[in-house]
Every structure is written in structure tokens, then in C-alpha cells.
Automatic annotation (TrEMBL):
GO biological process: methylation
Lineage: Bacteria, Pseudomonadati, Pseudomonadota, Betaproteobacteria, Burkholderiales
Xref: InterPro entries: SAM-dependent_MTases_sf
CDD domains in UniProt: AdoMet_MTases (cd02440)
Protein's recorded name: Class I SAM-dependent methyltransferase
Entry keyword set: Methyltransferase, Transferase
One annotated GO molecular function: methyltransferase activity
Amino acid sequence: MSIKLSSHDLRQISAGTLLHYNTNADDFREGTRDHDVTQNIAALLRHIEGEPPFTILDFGCGPGRDLKAFTAQGHRAIGLDGAARFVAMARDETGCEVWHQDFLQLDLPDARFDGIFANAVLFHVPGQDLPRVLRQLHATLKPGGVLFSSNPRGSNQEGWHHGRYGTFHDLESWRRYMTDAGFVELEHYYRPDGLPREQQPWLASVWRKPAV
């Protein structure tokens, strides 16, 4: 369940979470450099209709690992992150355009992207602000565009965890948020692949913005 947060609370959540990532940016880059998310990238790309190359927003791009993967496949990838150190790293590492925006203060163009890749990022948005953020992501997709998300799953609790704020949705809760924002579910799965469910802490899902 989401909890009632004041504007001061929300500013503290953003500031504290971004401070954590800025402070630990080098360790985060090294610790995640070799993470295999090819399953997630493929899940997004196979649902985008039309002829590539596609214009992709890597939402919460971090140091730029997945921007490199998209551009290596010939797509036009733009990154977005709230942590200034990640933005600088991603620009240096990839040469891509990378926007520095707080997730709770987004300024996104209308109908710009064929796909949004939100890997291990939307769980940082507090539950009460998530509907607004999802509507903004919906609006920046082209009609028929696709959003991929992967979040650590839980029992709909939220709060501070190891220096970062997080919300931990189950499938039913996540479906409500996404469908209320206007998305249609295409598929979902749990990660890492091939393990018993109790050893799969990540819920991945793919969603379409209806063309009409």
C-alpha cells in the first residue's frame, strides 16, 4: 500500500536516493557492468511494431551499460537519469544524448519514443507519485509504443532500504498501476530465468500504449 507523503517527504526521498547513487556511482558501475539483461532488452524490442531502428528512452540509464547495447544494435537511444554522476558517466561511455532529470520532476516530449526501457528503476518512485509518472511515460511514447519494466517484487511495501527509497509491488498491484495509466499488458515473467519462483526476486513486464 502507498503511504501519504508530504512534499517535503518527496524532496527528501529524491535527495537521499540520488545522494546514495552519486556517492556510490563507481562501485555501482563496476558491480553492474556485467549483469546480463539481454532477456529484458529482447522482451522490449520484440514487441515494438514497425521497422527498426527504433527510438528508445533508457529511463534510469545509470552509467550507460544498456544505452551501449541498444546503440550496438543500431537503435537511437537516449538516456535519462536523476544522478548527475551517472549522467556524466553515460555520456562519456556511450556518446549518447543523456537527460538529467529527477524522476519526480520529469519534463518529457510528447509521442517521441517507440520504446521505453525502465530496468530496475521505477520501484524508486513512491506509490502516491507513481500514477503521475506512469502517465508521463505513457505520453512520451508514440501511439502503439512499448514500455518494459523490471522491479524487485514484494508485498506492496515501501520505504527506505539500504540508503535508497523503494516500493516493492506484487503482480496484481503493478497491473493496476499500469492499466490505470492506460497501458495494455503484453507479457510478464520473473527473473533470473530458470530458477524456482522463490529465487526469482525480479518481476519483469512489457506494456503497450494503444495505437488508438
